[in-house]
Amino acid sequence: MRGQGDEAGRAEEGAAQRLRRLFEGHRLTPTQRRLAHCMVSRAAEVPFLSSVELAELAGVSQPSVTRFAVALGFDGYPALRRHLREVVPAETAAERPERTAYQQAVDAEIGNLRHLAALLADPAPVRDAGALLAASRPLPVLGLRAAAAQAYGFAYFAAKVHPDVRLLDGGGSLLADRIDRAAAAGAGALLCFALPRYPRETVEALEQARGAGLRVVTVADSAFAPVAALSDVLLPAPVGTGLAFDTACAPMLLGRVLLEAMCDALPEAQARLEDFDARAAARALFVE
Fold this sequence. Notes:
By secondary structure, this protein is an alpha/beta fold. The chain has helices at residues 2-23, 30-41, 51-58, 62-71, 77-87, 101-119, 124-135, 148-158, 174-184, 200-211, 249-264, 269-282; strands at residues 139-142, 165-168, 189-194, 215-220, 233-236. The relative contact order is 0.12.
């Protein structure tokens, strides 16, 4: 059974990768990026969906699906679907045992983690991003609304090894001031977590950061995210969409991997961790 599950996971991942290659090189509108993300997240079933069904899944209009197909170079959606049936094999319903909605959500998240693992086969982007963040003093970490938890988790652990981490998890008129102050204090980079739905303030904050001369490293759910054009380094990690609220296991794990890369680039990281452990023990900070 495990072998069959692994094989199905690899097939789904291969289908998603082929879809991503289809979208590469095209300048997509926000609506088209939404469609692209939906198609990638449901790669196995997309070749068998009608334009109306795909529109409903992505939350867009049916004409938007047609325009998207034309933007990709096809005569219309039927031509795109024929192409997908040729290059993206899908499982039949009979090949997959019945799963509850909760199990399907977990299965989808496992698929997201498999996709992340495939991306990390090339460690260079994360390693380079970690070095960039390690060198930034201070290091501002931005995450608003749904992404605030990811930013907080990263900043919490990063502060144990980095001398000056500044969490930016609230919007409003003070956000631009805090970015400017970080730049004036010597920051060279900003880390951003950007997850759907994307707050307008996140886009504005990245524009502010770029204007202040900061390089932007972004963890986002997709390479098609609206913040992609404002990011010097974009590290994608998909979110789960099968429940009422999105799940972000892959972005959270990518944040921890990025922390590891940052620790590797900080010579004093291990000494700082050991010092923290010693002080925590002296204060009986944790229950044994």
